[in-house]
Amino acid sequence: MAAGPTAVYEQLTILLTLGVVSHLFSKRFHQSTLIGEIVIGILLAPSLLGGMFGIFVFDTTFVQTFAALGAIFLLFLIGLESDFRALYTRKNFLVALGGVILPLFFGFVTALYLAPPSAVGAGSSPFLMALFVGATLTATSTAIAASILLELGLMKGDIGRTIMGAAVVDDILGLLILSMVVGVAHGGIDPLGIGIVMAKAVGFIGIGILVGIYFFSPIVVRLQIMGLKLGVKHGGFLIALALALFYSLVAETIGLSAIIGAFLAGTLFASGPLKDEFTDGAQYLEAVFTPIFFISLGLNVSIVAVLQTPQIFFFTIALVVVAMVTKMAGCAIAARLQHMTVIESLAVGWGMTPRGEVGLIVAVTALTASIISSSLFSVVVFVIIVVSVAPAPLFKQALQALDQERRAKEGAAAKPQA
Length: 418
Known about the structure:
- By secondary structure, this protein is mainly alpha-helical.
- It has a single domain, classed as Na+/H+ antiporter like fold.
- 79% of the residues lie in helices and 0% in strands.
- It is built from 19 helices and no strands.
- Helix 1 crosses helix 13.
- The chain is globular and about 80 Å long.
């Protein structure tokens, strides 16, 4: 590999080209782009083509640095779409809670009793390893659910609002769980420690929102207005981005994850007058850096590690089943308890089943902190890919059945009037 500044040009040329190729591949087969990015990374990983033919040699430090920025920009963008006041409802919260509790508990139990000893990272314990595995199964992929709802024209209906609202609350709960798990990993396992971690997470989110809304957000708006008068078009966006990085710094400093800070910073502007402009800017940064994040995840996956022993292979299959069944059941049961019909509840359950960004970020956080081994990381990413792709046809069928049920009801109601 070339040295000096030319290494940056070389690596970015390869990574951005691979990102575009993966997007075309994904859309050709009607899959989420993140799946294509991960698959490209897996194919070029040292365990496959990268090791066999040495096609590309990636600088680990370089890729990790840009991947970290990709995760921050992605969560900042998700935050911009997450207005607490519009999405928080009792029904959405309960559906999300049902979809968090079951996967967290059964994922933890499955990993604790079925994962081989080699799954535990060098700086970890079986308990922490299992806790992180459970946390990776909690968060829904809002991107996958949204793409299917848009395709079928159901985004603005009751099911669409429930799924998207619950998915956003689900991500928030998943990030909160990540905060607590990371804090526990840093400070030891005891009731007081867990309480302190929870207080840190809740306090950071609460104080961050209040200070952001009543202090930082007005400043950003004023700077944007002042900049426009002076011919500076993007001053407000740049300060908002700096604020996202500052929140990330604070989160890391107090022992939480940087991505939580970036997500929180994004929510500050979700209902503000500059949301659309900030979203446009964040989408460009996300388009450049986030594919590097997902490709980097694939580069760390070893298919050989998933298949190397019967115990790991059996654990992988078990985790796939647990990930799908618990998420679907948890959300569907909660939806049914909120007086939704059986078909509506099934649609909500399957719509919430795909995993994505937050689960992968939890996994890479655990790998970076040596909580899980590289072989277990490969298993977790493989599981997330499977449960992101497999439920899509079932979700479409449930939505189509729901549409047929609605049409039948409308036809029955119209008959007496004829």
